[in-house]
Every structure is written in structure tokens, then in C-alpha cells.
Amino acid sequence: MAKSEIIKEIPLACSNEFAAVEFLERKIWNGTPRCPHCQATNVCQIMDAKTGGRSKRFLWRCHDCGKQFTIRVGTVMEESRIPLRHWVYAIWRSATSKKGVAALEIKRQCQISYPSALFLMHRIRLAMTPERGASAKLTGIVECDETYVGGKPRFGTGYHKPGRGTSKTPVFGMVERGGNIHRRVVANVSGKTLKGAIKECVDKSATIMTDEWPAYRGVGKDFTGGHYFVNHGTKQYADGMVTTNTAESSFAILKRGIMGIYHAVSKKHLHRYVGEFDFRWNTRNMNDGDRTVAAVQGALGKRLDFKSLIQ
Ligand SMILES: [Zn+2]
Fold it and tell me: In this predicted structure, what is the pLDDT of residue 242?
């Protein structure tokens, strides 16, 4: 199924509104159309009396609550007038481009306004971001690291992480070696903040690996696998199994993407971009069709207040 989706279904849904609607209905409802108002499945398509085909707006009616709805209701696409074929195109591009896709590119290719493209992309990021606490806890070896978006000077320029203490925005990442990543924008890199995030996202059986940043001191007492750290300050990057290389390379992708594609990301929206990059990391073993469908399915149950999108 996934292969034919990439070759036939997705490109068709990017160019034909009817195909887009039916593609989204199939994927979001997963075979069982459901009323977004009352969750009933006793629903039917509203037909056009003249043409005998589906109504112009692709409406459905619920027999239980009597309300009408479309596939947009109750998803990130609600209250948007952007044609659904552009949504499918932008989701597809976003799910399959390693570093993401710029709103300017979507603006040109879909011939929509820049604010519309930006709005579209922010909502797609929301679809890609799991709700807090909804993801499985990380297990095994979990590497933790922090970075500063906006640029962190390299080693050898004094203290190894001069970004600490500056106004740049800290992002904290926890990555299971060979598994998933959880990153979040944090207010600071204090022990309380970092250890709190680790406790929330990492299973008690895990082994924690970090660098020598003092905020991590004592984190091992909460994890049966213990805590090991590398000392970057003494140029000790990898002490056998004890490394944070996975976390560092995942941050490198994030930073290259933000600098190369998005150029500048405001602090207010940074968490959305982080969610998008985490989504791609966590679905890296899926093919392009399955990853696109995963993003489409994330659209359900999430809405974003328009006001929160104004930069
Ligand atoms: Zn209903």
C-alpha cells in the first residue's frame, strides 16, 4: 500500500481536490468515518442532487447528532480555507525532506500567499508533534545533551559550551540509542529543569549518558542503569560506550535545518520546529509514504489558535 501511495495516490491528491479529500478521509478516519461532534459512526456523505456526486464542499451528515461536517473538522485543517490538495502537498514535502521545507517554497509551488504558507507549515508541525506525555518513555542507553539555537561556539573557544548563560534559546534533547528522541525548548539548563525532563521522558531502567555539565550531577540515583558522562572539557569525547554522539548528531541536523532552510526561527515558534525535526527522526525507518501518512494521522485532535500563529 505504501509504495502505491507514493507513486499514485499522494501525487494525485496533491493536484486534485477530490482525490485529496478522499485520501485524507481514508487516512484520518482509517476506514471508519466518524462524526467529529459526537464521535458517532452512523454518518453519510451528502450528495449533490444535480450531479449525483458528492456535494461541492465534501460534506458529511451525522444521523445521531444531525450535524454536518467535513474531514477538516477537529483537525489542524479546521478553519483553514487552503485547499486540501495543498495540505497534502505540504505534508508530503515536509515529511520527506530531511531538513524540512521552507514556507516560501510552499508559497511558490502552491501559489498561495506567504502568510497562508506559514500558517500551513505551523499547523503541519503541530500535526507532527505528539501531545506531551503521549510518547513511550525512552529506555536502554539514553543520551542527554543541550544545545543553543542561534549558534553555539565550537570547542576550543574557552569553556566548551559558551552558549550557556547567553540569551540564546536552550533546547534539551534526550535520545535513546537506536531509538526515539524527545527534545524540548527549556527556560534554562539548571539541574532542576534537566533532571525533571529526564524523569518525565526516560524509563527508570535506563542508563543515562551526558557530558560533564554539573546540572546532571546526581541524575543516576533515579535510574537503575546509572549515569555516565564524557568530559568534553578535557577533550575526552568518547570513552568507549560512553558518548553523547547520537544526541549531538541529532542536534546538528536540527541546527543545519534551522539555519539552512528556515534561516531564522523566532523563540516563540522554536518548539514547533523542534517537534518537526523530532518527528522525522522518530519515523526515520519508515518509507516516505508511511511517514506522510503518519503526519496526516497526527492532524486529528489538534487545533491551533490562529492568534498563537501571529509572529
Ligand atoms: Zn454526530
Answer: 78
